[in-house]
Design a protein that fits this description.
Hypothetical protein af1432; five-stranded parallel sheet; single chain; Rossmann fold; 17 helices; about 450 residues; five-stranded antiparallel sheet; Beta-Lactamase; alpha/beta; about 50% helix
Length: about 450
């Protein structure tokens, strides 16, 4: 049960007020009384009463005169007129001014209770119907606002799509057929919008790359990647262009769709290819230059001819086994075939001396690392070749030369070259000793 319904009895007859208060109180109502019209207005000003039993004759005013101000305060309040002088004219006047019912003081209490209950029930129905009507009106207004927003949104997005410099295709996720094409994609691919609506993903990409292209679309639609780069697309005239494609998934007309935004990057792709070819050409020229330097050095030291090539091959094998990148492996190979270039500063008779070297001669030999670095440091290699050459005789424990570097201070490429250099030197014949053999070298 909710809160008690409240009743205000407005009558200057105290016995009538007490009797009505007693009866309504026993029937579960909260009751207050007022002996004058002014007192009734004061009580109603501070509190809402579900019903007012209003005597038509009051000491300070006519009861009918209270109908209007009471209704202004509380439009949903039930007002029942009570009089000892019943007349049809008075009853009609009260009802016309907003009274809910009319009873005489020659009443039976059961009749009064029934009248009040019926009036309150009618008022509850009125209030509930009004609430339902207002909710229905609000829902209708909200639906209209939503429909208006959707229409405006659709128009706005259509305008954006139509005016977009990016090519846009909307594709059915399951069938992979196009549902919409904007003017930019029509211009990009050379098809009209009507033609594209009769086509699908398989019609605008090379057949041999279709599986890859579809996997890129789907990876984006699933949120696994943000952008598919350099995707080949076939124009109507048979020309292949390249596009960066950004894909998002959405729902349109109850079906899953993907919206693809195409940016033509054909010029960028061609420029990348040209740069790649130029880089490869420069790299080949660099390799030939390095080979010429190596050949020059080995002509002065016939006993170690082929040493640098073997070190380069061994270092490459080590780097490959370690899982290094192809680019890093190529840099190690290039440094390997030129790592002893600094020996061109060492007299040939010292390089080919069959006996043990003295301290001065050994110092000259050790200087080949720095000499090689000085020769190579100004050449802009794509790898740290000068540093590899400088450090290839450093040792992890700091016992190497020329700087006595330790551990992590030696770059990884130089550590690989150091191992390959030592193994190759031990396993090869030298003027001052025979080969120690590969097994000893590996130990």
């Amino acid at each position: 049960m909710g809160e008690k319904e409240s009743i205000l009895i407005v009558d200057d007859d105290e016995s009538t007020c007490r009797m009505l208060a007693l009866i309504f109180g026993k029937n579960g109502y909260e009751v207050e009384a007022a002996g004058t019209g002014r007192e009734a207005l004061e009580k109603a000003q501070g509190k809402f009463f579900n019903a007012v039993l209003l005597d038509i004759k009051l000491p300070d005013m006519e009861g009918i005169g209270l109908l209007a101000p009471l209704h202004r305060m509380h439009p949903d309040m039930v007002i029942i007129m009570v009089t000892a002088y019943a007349s049809l004219e008075t009853a009609m006047q009260a009802l016309n001014k907003g009274a809910s019912a009319y009873i005489t003081k020659q009443f039976y209490m059961q009749q009064v209770l029934v009248t009040v209950r019926e009036a309150l029930e009618k008022q509850r129905l009125v209030i509930e119907n009004r609430r339902l009507y207002e909710e229905a009106q609000q829902e209708l207004a909200e639906r209209k606002r939503t429909e208006k927003v959707l229409r405006e949104s659709e128009e706005r997005y259509r305008t954006l799509f139509e005016a977009s410099a990016e090519g846009i295709l909307i594709t059915d996720y399951k069938t992979q057929e196009f549902k919409y094409a904007n003017p930019a994609i029509s211009k990009m691919l050379g098809y009209s919008a009507e033609e594209l609506k009769e086509m699908g993903i398989s019609d605008i990409h090379p057949k041999d790359l279709l599986e890859y292209v579809v996997s890129e679309y789907m990876a984006q639609a699933k949120g696994e990647k943000a952008l598919a780069r350099n995707i080949p697309c076939l124009r109507k005239d048979g020309m292949t262009i390249y596009a960066d494609i950004h894909t998002v998934k959405t729902i349109m007309d109850g079906r899953e769709c993907i919206i693809d935004f195409f940016s033509d990057v054909t010029e960028r792709k061609l420029a990348e290819e040209q740069r790649k070819q130029s880089t490869e050409k420069l790299l080949r020229a660099m390799q030939e230059t390095i080979r010429a330097l190596v050949t020059t050095g080995e002509m002065r030291d016939p006993y170690t001819a082929g040493h640098q090539w073997r070190v380069a091959n061994l270092a490459t094998s080590i780097a490959t086994e370690m899982g290094l990148s192809k680019d890093m492996i190529q840099g190690i190979y290039m440094a390997g075939i030129i790592h002893d270039i600094g020996k061109i500063n060492v007299p040939a008779e010292i390089l080919s001396k069959p006996g043990r070297l003295n301290e001065i001669e050994m110092s000259m030999i050790k200087g080949h690392c720095q000499a090689g670095y000085d020769i190579l440091k100004t050449i802009e290699f794509p790898w740290p070749i000068a540093q590899m050459v400088l450090q290839h005789h450093e040792r992890m424990d700091g016992s190497g030369y020329p700087s006595g570097l330790r551990g992590e201070n030696i770059i990884p490429e130089a550590r690989i070259l150091a191992v390959a250099d030592v193994v190759e030197a031990m396993a090869s014949h030298r003027p001052y000793r025979p080969s120690l053999g590969i097994d000893n070298a590996l130990k």
